[in-house]
Specification:
Strand order of the largest sheet: 8-7-6-9-10-13-18
Shape: globular
Strand content: 15-25%
Oligomer: single chain
Radius of gyration: 24 Å
Low-confidence stretches: 187-196
Length: 591
């Protein structure tokens, strides 16, 4: 049987993503005031912009973006919305996209404020070049002008090439030239103390009580409970869909999958489509009997309250926004407020909550401000670490909310996962692999053709997604006395193993002195080549003059627990690395 879904001639590639313009049009048409819609791509100054045209009553742009956010991925959000009286049509009666009016890719001249200082002038020029806009004033907001995380990386690269002391994260905190120039002139970070207070000005005593048992000497006390029926949020995501598959393959019972239907006619159709993508089988025969789709969104308290009609015992929350930097409140809404909605539901309905987090909440230390410990364990939360980006901040706050609720009676656990990578079975990667920060850094090394000698002995950890999913389910079965686990591969490699594997595969990567590598990245930025290729190497630079280090984590307690649950992690061997590199290359990731 062949199901004809439609033509794909409206698919385009923008900023490394494959974008289906028809999906955006379908989402727009769901708005009650939109009568007709057309989406196209315009190019200006070397940048591509998704532009949405619609007929019907004019709608404020912010309102349209808010409406579309639950329906389409962030990278498919149009940069411009244009209200027109009627769509131009071809003689055949189809929308004539070539006749659509060109939107104004420029600033509002009435509000233009001219740069005065040298820093302001330099930054205005950088904004103009990155955005392909003729005139940018010092009060213009970078993201309101059509900027994105990838164009922000262009700005960061250009600042690097001009020796302007700004880093990638600054563009999200200070999106106008006036604010950025003030930061350059002050030559320091003004919010460091304020951001730290959010973590340090909190009493962790109750939380410490509920995480103190998560130690290696208590592993023998672990008992295994029946898992029962589960709900998986973020069920079409990389981890969520593998949790679903691992449950179907290893457990009896039903899985309630929280799925937004998006462009599909039903949540079931979307779920089957994703299952087919990852596993070459839509599992159609299991729907209704074992796989039950629920169309919903964890950011809606009303929709989460409605989960009470479904008879699952455990929620595994894989839903998250994984952007490390964002110009709006999407990280807060999904990663914090969404989790708070799930906490309230589970407390009020007697369900268990498994919150998927990340070992990255261990954060960073520096020689100037050392944390209380250099090793982050399962019985730790706040150890004085520095948290440098919004994603990790929101995951930390979500953990804190869950563990605080556990101290008040919630049956809940936090499972921190590691570096989620390709499947152990066949090397399959996530559909949106371009967003993986670790992978983007690998692409940067290939683009520059160099790797720093100082990084060769750095430890790297690969947690295959299928192995991680099964580990999450095993840990969800543990009794409620144990509350935090590190579901990360116990077998580590060094970056040297990975770099040599990439060289054996055919990539030319010279191993050079650290100073030579830094100079090569800066030179690459200066040449005006593809800035996105090195964006993964500069996204996490900071203003801290002291040497910064990532705080190591331990998973010894979790490993001992998993052994008692008859589970061990696969070895990251040459076969796995070769499969992973080859899979990425087939996806043209390094092109």
């Amino acid at each position: 049987n062949i199901e004809y879904i439609g033509r794909i001639d409206s698919q385009v590639k923008i900023r490394g993503y494959r974008v289906e313009l028809g999906e955006i049009e379908g989402a727009l048409l769901k708005h009650e005031l939109v009568k007709n819609a057309a989406v196209t791509v315009i190019e200006k100054g070397g940048n591509k912009y998704i532009t949405a045209y619609y007929t019907g009553e004019a709608i404020p742009e912010d309102e349209l973006k808010t409406f579309l956010e639950p329906l389409i991925p962030d990278y498919m959000m149009p940069s411009f919305f244009v209200s027109i009286e009627e769509m131009p049509v071809t003689p055949g009666g189809k929308i004539d996209k070539k006749a659509l009016p060109m939107p104004e890719v420029t600033t509002n001249t009435a509000s233009y404020v001219e740069p005065v200082t040298a820093a302001q002038r330099a930054l205005c020029e950088i904004f103009e070049k990155a955005l392909g806009i003729e005139r940018v004033g010092i009060e213009d907001n970078f993201f309101e002008l059509g900027g994105s995380s990838l164009t922000a990386s262009k700005v960061a690269v250009m600042c690097l090439s001009k020796n302007i002391s700004l880093v990638y994260a600054d563009i999200f905190k200070y999106p106008t030239v006036r604010e950025l120039a003030a930061l350059v002139d002050d030559d320091g970070v003004t919010e460091a103390a304020q951001s730290k207070n959010e973590f340090s000005d909190y009493n962790y005593n109750r939380i410490q009580n509920v995480i103190s048992a998560n130690t290696e000497e208590n592993a023998d006390r672990i008992t295994k409970e029946k898992l029962g029926d589960i709900m998986v949020t973020g069920a079409t995501g990389f981890l969520g869909i593998h949790v679903l598959k691992a449950f179907i393959d290893n457990y009896d019972g039903k899985v309630y999958c929280l799925v937004r239907k998006g462009k599909y006619e039903s949540p079931e159709k979307r779920m089957m489509n994703m299952l087919m993508y990852y596993f070459d089988d839509p599992y159609k025969e299991l729907f209704e009997s074992r796989i039950i789709c629920v169309d919903g969104d964890i950011t809606s308290k009303e929709q989460v309250t409605g989960f009470s009609e479904y008879k699952f015992s455990t929620i595994i929350n894989c839903a998250a926004c994984v952007k490390h930097f964002a110009a709006d409140d999407v990280l807060e809404r999904i990663n914090v407020q969404g989790v708070e909605n799930l906490i309230d539901f589970c407390k009020n309905n007697g369900r268990r909550l498994i919150q998927i987090s990340t070992v990255s909440v261990a954060g960073e230390g520096s020689d100037g401000v050392p944390p209380m410990s250099r090793v982050f364990c399962e019985n730790d939360l706040y150890i004085g670490q520095n948290i440098t980006n919004e994603y990790i901040r929101t995951k930390f706050l979500a953990e804190r909310a869950v563990l605080e609720a556990v101290s008040e009676g919630l049956d809940g656990k936090v499972v921190r996962v590691g570096n989620l990578m390709s499947r152990n079975s066949d090397g399959e990667f996530q559909i949106n692999f371009i967003t993986n920060g670790f992978l983007r850094s690998l692409r940067g090394y290939v683009a520059v053709g160099k790797f720093p000698m100082g990084g060769m002995h750095e430890v790297a950890e690969f947690s295959p997604i299928d192995s991680t999913a099964l580990a999450v389910l095993r840990l969800a079965q543990t009794d409620r006395r144990f509350t935090v686990f590190h579901a990360c591969n116990s077998h580590h490699i060094y970056m040297a193993d990975l770099i040599y594997a990439m060289r054996s595969y055919g990539f030319r990567i010279d191993i050079v002195r650290d100073e030579e590598f830094e100079a090569a990245v800066k030179e690459f930025a200066k040449t005006g080549q593809d800035s996105d290729a090195v964006s993964g190497l500069i996204a996490y630079t900071s203003h801290n003059e002291n040497e910064i280090y990532t705080i190591d984590y331990s998973n010894r307690f979790t490993a001992q627990v998993l052994y008692r649950l008859d589970y061990k992690w696969p070895v990251t061997d040459d076969r796995y690395l070769e499969n992973a590199i080859a899979a990425l290359d087939r996806l043209t990731f390094f092109d």
